[in-house]
Amino acid sequence: FHFKDSLAEDLQSADLVISHAGAGSCLETLEKGKPLIVVINDKLMDNHQLELAKQLHRDGYVLYCNCSTLVEMLQSMDLSTLKPFPPGQPEKFASFLDKVFGFQ
Amino acid sequence: SGGHTTEILRLLSCLSESYSPRHYVLADSDNMSEAKIRSFEQKRAETFSKSQFTLDRIPRSREVRQSWISSVVTTLYSIFHSLPLTYKWKPDLILCNGPGTCVPICISAFLLGFLRIKRTIIVYVESICRVETLSLSGKILYYFSDYFIVQWPDLKKKYPKSVYLGRIV
After folding, report:
1. What does the alpha-carbon distance between residue A27 and residue B10 come to, in Å, rounded to a whole number?
2. Does the beta-carbon distance from B168 to A21 stay under 8 Å?
3. Which residues of A touch B31 (CB under 8 A)?
4. Chain A residues lying within 8 Å of B148, measured CB to CB
5. Domains in chain A and their CATH numbers?
6. How far does CA B32 lie from the centroid of its chain?
7. CATH number belonging to the domain at B2-164, selected among 1.10.8, 3.30.70, 3.40.50, 3.30.1120
8. What are the boundaries of each domain within chain B?
9. Cβ within 8 Å, pair A101-B18
10. A23 → closest Cβ in B32, B36, B127
């Protein structure tokens, strides 16, 4: 499975997504309302990916694990506990920048 | 690169055409972002017919897990390549969100400001991935940016000069 320009089609037809903790992957999946298990990559320099997975998990949006615990997670998971993910608000950023430049 | 590109395109999604032309700068080793950017700009051109953008590449300033010392050397090399770009475009605004690529661009803009050639406003938006700690780019640009935006409240507490708008991507 090499790189595709977009995983949108695959995401749409999936019942469950297992992904690394990259922002794009997580956000795209959560926004399509698909249940998500985030797997952390232990090899990146500082394991900052863990921060997002932990926070999203704390807020009840995803399940998370690492490579060695994935199988166990798949066997014991309860997807009904996951909450729907509210979208981000880039319009707030636009308003903020407009104020900085006096565009209003 | 990758996730950073997705985030920055979302940040751009609500901006008016006052923020034009847009000059994108990518790392030379980045193979996936160009398609995403072109797709974004194409959609944008459907709504705003006079929409303009350019795309340039600079040497990647740092590979994942690259040593600190060689990172300084490669970053200096990238700054050297960034200066002609920043000098050419003389941007009013630089918007960046964390890939190593943004550090040399921002430093070159900062230098142009220091030399009174062009005063650019630098807006840095830390990635949504960063909940408790800043990225390396963030730690550096916290001091060089005019506005430093974080997306989680813990970071606002730790970095009081930052701006917190909630989740914006």
Report:
1. 11
2. no
3. 3
4. none
5. 7-96 (3.40.50.2000)
6. 16
7. 3.40.50
8. 2-164
9. yes
10. B127
Residues of chain A with Cβ-Cβ distance to B64 below 8 Å are 44-45
Residues facing residue B125 across a β-bridge: B149
| Cα A84 from Cα A30, distance rounded (Å) | 8
**B96 and B144 in contact (C-beta within 8 Å)?**
no
* The pair of three-digit structure tokens given for residue A55, joined into one six-digit string: 């926070």
pLDDT digits (tens, 9 = 90+) for B19-56: 999 999 999 888 889 999 999 999 999 998 888 999 99
ipTM score for this prediction = 0.92
- B93: which 2 tokens? 């605004």
Contact B65, B105 (CB under 8 A): no
Name the minimum distance, in Å, from the CA of B132 to any CA of chain A: 7
Task: For residue B14, list chain A residues with Cβ-Cβ distance below 8 A.
Answer: 90-91, 93-94
Minimal C-alpha gap between A79 and chain B (Å): 23
Return the structure tokens found at B87: 């000098």
B105-132 per-position pLDDT tens digit: 999 999 999 999 999 999 999 998 889 9
